[in-house]
From TrEMBL:
Transmembrane segment boundaries: 47-66
Gene3D superfamilies per record: 2.80.10.50
Coiled-coil positions: none
Protein name: Uncharacterized protein
One GO MF term: endopeptidase inhibitor activity
UniProt KW keywords: Membrane, Transmembrane, Transmembrane helix
Organism: Citrus unshiu (Satsuma mandarin)
Any matching Pfam family: Kunitz_legume
Acetylation recorded as keyword: no
Membrane as UniProt keyword: yes
Amino acid sequence: MTKPSTNTQESDLNSVKFSLREKIRGYLHTTTKDKNKNYNDITMRSTLVLPSLILLFAFTATPLPVKGNAQPDPVLDIAGKQLRAGSKYYILPVTKGRGGGLTLAGRSNNKTCPLDVVQEQHSFKNGLPVTFSPVNPKKGVVRESTDLNIKFDAATSCAQSTVWKLDNFDAAFGQWVVTTGGVEGNPGPRTMRNWFKIEKFFGDYKLVYCPSVCNFCRGLCRDVGIFINGGVRRLALSDIPFKVVFKKV
């Protein structure tokens, strides 16, 4: 038998290679076209479907309820009940062992009236009860961050009232001291010194002097803290708030 020549073998091999290359090229061409076609189909469908989904969501989505005329949270006493205007409460410190409730004392031997708001020396003493009068007397609930008058429910030897007010700056103390002799009610520029607020503070409460009873007035806006002088713990404006709770009498 005659063996095929080398040239014939090379020719057959080249034919096979050429045929294989053509098949691969045709496959790749077809695959690319199919991919492009599929991509174009998906893009067109997305373009048609997306506006429909937007319209459907716009007409069917339920808006979230809006709480209109939201009021501040009510202030709660140690029993978890809302503070009520006109009811009697003790204002007690959160920190134990650093004095008791609040009471009245003269500023010095030469100035006994009006009486200042001070803290009891002993932690077991509740002090004198107070009442709260919100700026809106029709609202019986005492609420956070709301202007209110604070008044000791006690008789004194001084002619002035027991309504709290911020005194003029005391140069001797270098402090804005909380005293009494204020006016209850009548919100406005003339009674700015008589209004305080109760604000939430790390789960408890603090007293704040930041009156908002006069829109065009500019005044102080600071926490009420404790100023110690001569062993007397007086209430005065401070950068360190006096943390308090309220106990119903």
